[in-house]
Inverse folding.
């Protein structure tokens, strides 16, 4: 019958398409992978990634948490986590993550000079990402938080298709140009069948420390509107606060250095 012929064609097409995709293989020792992403740079993605990793560990001291900096061109995890130096190698030639505040961290920033630019083409970047995913001895982790580079390109696709991901978190400011890219990021993860856990609205409001007047520098509630449109949850609404910036720049993120503060 024509319906069974259509079904057979669909199955054949799916088989051919799946041949071109890499097989998803879990990272050894890692139970859950959460990716932190944004379509646009400069929205506080790395700051959020660092504080989320520290919060996961602070929330439950029985959980082991790791943090992977997948931003090859602009790694910022070493500075924010106050880590320096080259990773040691295990007898199996795997890199040992550097550790601070109880979080195991791996970043391109540990492998190059701090001021050296990474002037690489796409294939070299993909090779580096593959090494950071597969040639690191993470031990036993309950959560691996991956700080993704901005955009929806090779790195995002490679990470999404190579390893099973429990969920993605999209970070954006309420500004219209950031929201356009955040929407693209959310749609990309849906296309590659990665569940989007929700959105974080960052730099949402600035309160003057003297007169307490509140100013919505990047606009008000834009991420909330986007979440409604996409049918997603708002996971957090983070103010534009000098403490959050200063503590990360000093390598003492606010979750660990000022756990009782509003920020």
């Amino acid at each position: 019958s024509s319906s069974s012929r259509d079904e057979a064609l669909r199955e054949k097409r799916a088989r051919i398409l799946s041949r071109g995709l890499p097989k998803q293989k879990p990272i050894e020792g890692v139970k859950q992978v959460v990716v932190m992403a944004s379509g646009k740079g400069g929205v506080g993605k790395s700051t959020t990634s660092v504080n989320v990793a520290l919060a996961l560990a602070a929330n439950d001291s029985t959980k082991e948490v790791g943090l992977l900096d997948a931003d090859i061109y602009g790694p910022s995890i070493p500075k924010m986590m106050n880590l320096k130096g080259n990773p040691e190698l295990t007898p199996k030639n795997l890199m040992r993550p550097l550790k601070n505040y109880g979080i195991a961290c791996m970043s391109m920033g540990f492998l190059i000079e701090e001021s050296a630019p990474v002037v690489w083409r796409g294939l070299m970047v993909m090779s580096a990402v593959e090494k950071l995913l597969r040639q690191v001895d993470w031990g036993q982790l309950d959560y691996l938080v991956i700080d993704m580079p901005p955009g929806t390109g090779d790195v995002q696709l490679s990470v999404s298709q190579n390893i099973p991901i429990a969920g993605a978190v999209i970070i954006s400011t309420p500004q219209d140009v950031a929201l356009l890219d955040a929407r693209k990021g959310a749609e990309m993860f849906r296309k590659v069948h990665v569940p989007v856990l929700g959105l974080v609205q960052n730099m949402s409001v600035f309160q003057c420390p003297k007169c307490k007047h509140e100013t919505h520098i990047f606009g008000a509630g834009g991420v909330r509107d986007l979440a409604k449109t996409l049918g997603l949850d708002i996971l957090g609404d983070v103010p534009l606060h000098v403490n959050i910036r200063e503590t990360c720049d000093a390598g003492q993120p606010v979750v660990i250095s000022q756990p009782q503060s509003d920020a």
